[in-house]
Specification:
The chain has helices at 10-15, 35-44, 64-71, 119-128, 153-158, 206-217, 227-236, 271-280; strands spanning 5-6, 19-23, 26-31, 46-50, 55-60, 83-90, 96-106, 109-114, 135-138, 144-149, 173-179, 182-187, 196-201, 222-224, 284-291, 302-305, 308-319, 324-332, 341-346, 349-356. With 365 residues, the protein is α+β, with helices and mostly antiparallel strands. Strand 16 (302-305) and strand 17 form a beta hairpin. Helix 2 crosses helix 7 (227-236). The N and C termini lie far apart (46 Å).
C-alpha cells in the first residue's frame, strides 16, 4: 500500500496540532481541538477545511458537453458558464459509480470534482466513455481545494477576494479571481449544510491562502476543522458519503437522489435501468433515523423490525447541533415512511429508533 499521500497543507496541519489519520489513501486531519467544537464553529461562525484530497477531472473539446451529459444523470443543459450542479454518475445497471459536482467553466470546458477514494477509477471510467472530440485530463495534482463554510464565510472571504461574492447564487462560481493576491476559482458550494465557499488554487499557494483566511477570520470565530466535523456536519444535512451511503450496488432512486435523475434530457448511461426501476417501483430506500436513547448508532449496525434484521446503518453519529443520535440506512420501502418505528442493534441490544424526514438539519433562511 505504501505511505498515504499528503496534501500541500500537511505540515500546516501538523503545526496546528491536528490529529492525522489515513483517509482514502491520504494523511488528513481528523480534528484539531475536538470534533464537537469544530462542528459548532461551522454552524455558528465558520470553519476552514483542507479538501485537497478530492479529485478534479477536466473535459474540453467540441463534444465535451455531450460526453459529460452522457456520463451523468442530471441535466447539463440547465447550466451556463459560471454555474455548477450536483449529480450521480451511474453504470449501465443504474448503480452509482460516484457522485460529482460539475462546473461549467466555458461552453466547451467542464471541471468535475470527484471523491478522493474514487479518483483513479472515475478518471478511467470517464476516459473509457468519452466521445470522440473530447479531451479528458486528470487535473488533481494541479489543484488544491479549501472549503470555508459557515454563516460568516462570506464576510471573511470577501475581505481577501477581489471578486464580488455576495451576488453568487448557490452553485455559482467565479472561474477567475484572486484571494490573498493569488489566482483562484471560487465556488459557492460545500458539504456542510451551511452557506460557504470552495477555493480552487495552485498547490504551492494553498498554505498562504489557508494562513490568510485564518488570520483575517480568527476574530470572527473561524477555526480549522477536520474530517470528523466534516462528517457530522454532512450527516446532519442529510448529505450522502460515497462508499458508505451509496455505491455501485445502490441506485439514485434508492438513495433518495431521484431529483438528480432527469429522464427527459435524453440518453445517459444507466437511463434504461433506472427507468425500469422507477416503473417497477423501488424495493428499498435510504432513510434517516433518530434513536430515542443516548446510545450512538454506527456504520454497519443492524436495523431491526420486530427483532429481525431489515437493513444496516450506513452512517451514524451524535449530532451536536440537534443534541440527538442520528443515522441513515436502507430499509424495505414499506418501512421508509417517517414515523415508522424500528430499532438499531447497539452493543448487542435493540435501541428504539424512529424514521424521520431528511435532512435532519436545515440552516435558517
Amino acid at each position: 500500500m505504501g505511505e498515504p499521500k499528503r496534501t500541500p497543507l500537511y505540515e500546516t496541519h501538523c503545526n496546528l496540532g491536528a490529529r492525522i489519520v489515513e483517509f482514502a489513501g491520504w494523511a488528513m486531519p481528523l480534528q484539531y481541538t475536538s470534533i464537537v467544537e469544530e462542528h459548532r464553529a461551522v454552524r455558528t461562525n465558520a470553519g476552514l477545511f483542507d479538501v485537497s484530497h478530492m479529485g478534479e477531472v477536466e473535459f474540453t473539446g467540441p463534444s465535451a458537453f455531450e460526453t459529460v451529459q452522457r456520463l451523468i444523470t442530471n441535466d447539463l443543459g440547465r447550466l451556463r458558464p459560471g454555474r455548477a450542479l450536483y449529480t450521480p454518475m451511474c453504470t449501465e445497471e443504474g448503480g452509482i459509480v460516484d457522485d460529482l459536482i460539475v462546473y461549467m467553466v466555458e461552453e466547451a470546458r467542464f471541471l468535475v470534482v470527484v471523491n478522493a477514494a474514487t479518483t483513479d477509477g472515475d478518471y478511467a471510467w470517464m476516459k473509457d466513455h468519452a466521445l470522440p472530440g473530447t479531451t479528458v485530463v486528470n487535473r488533481s495534482e494541479e489543484i488544491s481545494l479549501l472549503a470555508l463554510q459557515g454563516p460568516k464565510s462570506l464576510a471573511i472571504l470577501q475581505e481577501l477576494c477581489d471578486g464580488e461574492l455576495s451576488a453568487l447564487p448557490r452553485f455559482g462560481f467565479l472561474p477567475s479571481c484572486r484571494v490573498a493576491g493569488y489566482p483562484v476559482m471560487v465556488a459557492r458550494t460545500g458539504y456542510t449544510g451551511e452557506d460557504g465557499f470552495e477555493i480552487f488554487c495552485r498547490p504551492e499557494d494553498a498554505p498562504v491562502i489557508w494562513g490568510a483566511l485564518l488570520e483575517v477570520g480568527w476574530h470572527a470565530g473561524v477555526r480549522p476543522a477536520g474530517l470528523g466535523a466534516r462528517d457530522t456536519l454532512r450527516l446532519e444535512a442529510g448529505y450522502l458519503l460515497y462508499g458508505q451511503d451509496m455505491d455501485r450496488t445502490t441506485t439514485p432512486l434508492e438513495a433518495g437522489l431521484g431529483w438528480t435523475v432527469k429522464f427527459e434530457k435524453g440518453e445517459f448511461i444507466g437511463r434504461s435501468a433506472l427507468l425500469a426501476q422507477r416503473e417497477e417501483g423501488v424495493k428499498r430506500r435510504l432513510v434517516g433515523m433518530v434513536t430515542v436513547e443516548r446510545a450512538i448508532p454506527r456504520t454497519g449496525y443492524k436495523i431491526l423490525k420486530n427483532g429481525s434484521p431489515v437493513g444496516h446503518v450506513t452512517s451514524g453519529s451524535y449530532a451536536p447541533t440537534l443534541d440527538k443520535n442520528i443515522a441513515m440506512g436502507y430499509v424495505p420501502i414499506g418501512m421508509a415512511e417517517p414515523g415508522t418505528h424500528l430499532a438499531i442493534e447497539i452493543r448487542g441490544r435493540p435501541v428504539p429508533a424512529e424514521v424521520v424526514k431528511l435532512p435532519f438539519y436545515k440552516r435558517p433562511a
